Fold each of these.
Amino acid sequence: MPKITYIDRVGVALSVDVKPGLSLMEGAVRNNVPGIEGECGGACACATCHVYIDPDWKDRVGPQSAMEASLLEFADDVRENSRLSCQITVSQALDGLTVHVA
Amino acid sequence: MGPMSCRVVIVGAGHAGGALAAVLRQYGHEGPITLIGEEGTAPYQRPPLSKAALTGDLDPETLVLRPNGWYIDNGINLLLNEAVRAIDRPASQVVLASGQRLSYDALVLATGVRARNLDLPGSTLAGIATLRTIEDARTLKGELASGRRLVVVGGGYVGLEVAASAIAAGCSVTVLEREARVLNRVAGPTLSEYFERRHRSEGVILHLGVQVASFFGNGSRVEGVKLTDGREVAADVVLVGIGGLPNQELAIEAGLQTGNGVIVDEATKTSDPRIFAIGDVAYRPLPLYDEAGRLESVPNALEQAKQAARSILHQEPPEREVPWFWSDQYNVKLQIAGLISGADNHVIRGNVGTDRFSVFYLLGDRLLAVEAINSPADFMGGKRMIASREPLCAARLADPAIPIKDVAMKARLLKTS
């Protein structure tokens, strides 16, 4: 199973196995990672699952949708590598990914 | 015993109860937590039950917020298929249906709401459904085969979302609404008109201002709905979606203050300082609006879970939140931030004849709410402006040529200058 490392806002890292097909947000919620709320349950409606993706992984996680980009425009502390974690589906190709909670 | 090791009992294993158990652990609580739910599934996402899951994947494994193993790993005693019979306040215990007693230092009522039923002739016929639980969704899903006739009683969120899902499943759908417009309780008239037009364009037959008199059938199963004006609407299946009733009986019997829900303060405390209430069942202050109310939404459940956790652990309360809601119907994403009651004017941004516009509700020059149709930036910008309570220029808000971000920024500049 793909291993994902979540690093929360105070720097605590949690490495967990996330089932392929779940989103990065669901993987975080299932493991109670602080700061990932997922209020809309993954409907791309709220921006409460904002993360930073390590730049090396940019191509593998794919591009933002227009909806996601609009929501991120108003998120706090947006950076070039900002993503909504509900919009990234976990697969074997993401094994070893590190995600920073925004 | 310090708050970090106190015994917490949570009655109700829905979104609010489940979130509370999780945030208590996040905030450092190490004491025993018991989470008691009447359903057989660990806390799960309810919103998809009327949307994608109704015609697609209804697997509890996908819908649960956290797998059962997480509760075990985190020392949370999850009691499913278990009902609480009473609260014994003098003994600080809850009494389970089995008679077993559990002691608490903090008790949290997260009992939610149940679907309101129509108590009319024929309402016990088979084929008349309500929708609240995963079991309800499974039953309804089994009824929504292509070509079947669905009648939805009630044009609220649940009714309209189910209508859209049923259209996608190939059903023919009639929606019956008692009021003169759909979404009467939860949205402004512009939005109601939009959704009425949208549903009709998808093939939904929509009757407004009508009331159900009775249901008729073949003796066991429903075959149609009779209206008070005498008309009959044929049905193979009926969904009654006329709102929820707060599950507050335990609180009433325990002598807690109740009304339209269990009455709590900003820290989610009930009239007994050791008992809290959160989520759909709680009648709570709405700090940005100087009023109180009961909000049925996931964001409200999560927010109050945080408020309760902080309160139980004697930590600083979280920031005041802007209530928000969303709905998916067809390819329409509706996002609402804030509450429109109390507004004295509104501004439309975009064209209401299209599938992309927003309605901003103001009190004077202060933004109270935004209803955004496929306009996520307006929703997000609006949510910020509601929280900031800064004065706004309505003309700028109405001009789609000015990016919403600039409208929001300008408001900030006006305030500091």
Amino acid sequence: MNDQGNILFSGVGGQGILLASEITAYGLLRAGYDAKKSEVHGMAQRGGSVTAQLRYGKKVYSPLIEPGRADVQMAFEMMEAVRYLPYLHRGSKVIVNTQKILPPAVATGQAVYPEGILDELRRRDIEVIAVDAFELARSVGEGRTANVVMVGALSVFLPVEGEVFAEIIRARVPERFREVNLEAFAAGRKACQ
Amino acid sequence: MTHDTTQGLWLSGNEAIALGAYEAGVKVASGYPGTPSTEILENLCTYQGVYCEWAPNEKVGLETALGASFVGARALATMKHVGVNVAADPLFTASYTGVRGGLVLVSADDPEMHSSQNEQDNRNYAFAAKVPMLEPSDPSEAKEMVGAAFRLSEELDTPVMLRITTRVSHVKGVVTKGVREEAPVAIGIEKVPGKLVMLPAMARKRRVYVEERMARCKKLAEAYPYNRIEDGDRRRGFVTSGVSYLYVKEAFPEAAVLKLGMCWPLPEEMIRSFAATVGELIVVEELDPFLETHIKAMGIPCRGKELIPNQGELNTAIVREAIDPASRPQLFAPVELPNRPPNMCAGCPHRGIFYNLSRMKLFVSGDIGCYTLGFLPPLSAMDACVCMGASVPIAHGMVKALGEGSHDKVVSVIGDSTFLHSGITGLVNSVYNGSAATLIILDNRITAMTGQQHNPASGGTILGDPAPSLDLEGLCRAIGVKHVFTVNPHDVVETRKVLKAAVELSEPSVVISRAPCVLLPEMKERRPVSYFTNQDNCVGCMSCIRLGCPAISWTAFAEGEAERRGYRATQKGVSKIDEILCNDCGQCASLCKFNAITRGEGKK
């Protein structure tokens, strides 16, 4: 994925997916790409399964990733890594936060959280990069920066210099959270290098 | 976050429309929040020199903008697609009065129903109300078209509709910044009764003008810069508009395309001459066969909905495969997983009401808002939901049809903002025409579903400045409701008693459930002292689990585990509260009879 790419962000409403996709988009724009990003607001944000779709290239028309054409999936929750399988192709990379968030049917004992779920991806020649983003975020002192840890992990695979992302975080994150977010980014990056 | 990038500004379609309106010299903007339109006014209100407000509903929003236009100001009204139904009354006659300052109505449609109750295609409104409609494809074009819409409005003395869809509103892209222009019309009162007083005699004259205007607009459309032919392989020629254009460009990059930035009225000659030069004419549009129907009515052969779905959103793959089925790639099949539907937040005050309703075996006539999620299991406490404000008259109609003594079988549930939007008249009718089904107003002090917008009862303006806060109890009494109760829904047990008493009354009653939305900034800022489970005391009764709170989960025991851990051998499992997710509402504690849920005093 050099000249163009499709990045699918998936997770659970409230996990900071929008901020993560924003930082990623700014990085790609800074590297000179055109980009479009699609989000869904409203009903979808109340703890439901959510996605953001980011496409970049020389010139991007459609804001939506076609099924089978996501090159990278950033999954903020394990089960959500597998839910969008039809968007992936052989050789897609899935960067997955190994956190589990129980959906209502599981929390109320009506269903079970599937075990060994990431094997569903590996079995299909999809490269799984597991990151314990929540733990890494906690290790830098703020569990809520797990989303930025994930961006750090993703940054290793993007045609953008790591320092560019650090600049973006410095420029766009409010001062009192700046340092911890830079550390979170570095921790995520290190985990994948 | 700032939006600057080296290429330009990185903006969503809604942010771009706000910028476009500002640059066009808009003076007054009004509307009602609704996904996917909400962020337009939320952004526009941050610019200097533009008056913005949240109106109680879309009709008031459009009428306010019309008033501003009558004195010469450029005015904007914004709403979601179904909001235009509410505003349709002023729209159809504003088409007759025309404007002084430019008047633009933004209709944000929601194909696929990401956050809506239907997916109506509002291009039909432009046809029906006889007004021009522009349709941008992406944020950059959306910004440009706002200014174009204002100029068109003034040139042709007409309201102009700007139709966007979710994939324009909530798509981010690169936008070029411009400068704010001075609107051309001087602001001041000008009396032109022949144009503004739509009595039949005057309306008949304006009716003639409307036709003349649309004929002029049609002519203008032939050379309109946003209607353009992109030359290419002419074996197939595509006619398309809005976001569908982008999918055509990706699916068939070589093909000739006629892009219609003005989707009503249509440039007949342009379409006819394009059609004459291509082998086959294909119309690609989301939802209704709007362009297709009108192109076919011109006698031009084309194919559209026989290929392209008339439901849901399109995307590049759908367009490509509809036209070229052999291009369908082999995709990975989905893996079956537990669903993850949206849910009310941990600590949501609505949960306390719906938990009780789920136990009361009533027909719950619901309404539009976060609380529509009360439909989902385990609460499963909503039996109907149609449109804003419908909950109250639907309950009234049911009671009238069911007959004497049925008032205790049906309740209606509506949010504070929705009640003020269009629930009040329903309550007036229930009182006036005598039906006693209880109305529950869920007053969480904000318009929550669309992301925390103020409303006439919340005590703030769109900018968060103090505003009068409507007295809901007083309003209900003034309407003639003698029995008005107020409850704290977090006290689930006490709320049940009040609901029961209200439902049994044979006169109209209103229960106001009052507790702030947990997403309000002031609620988020407080450091909650969360609840936790004393698991030793848990008997596995599942009372708390039935609340469906995201912070409470159930751990089932393996065989023999209950005894091993010192529980009754028959106990199936225990509940657990996630202290990070818990928002301290205490509903579960008010239900637990075994002292298994305790408030974590001083824990954080």
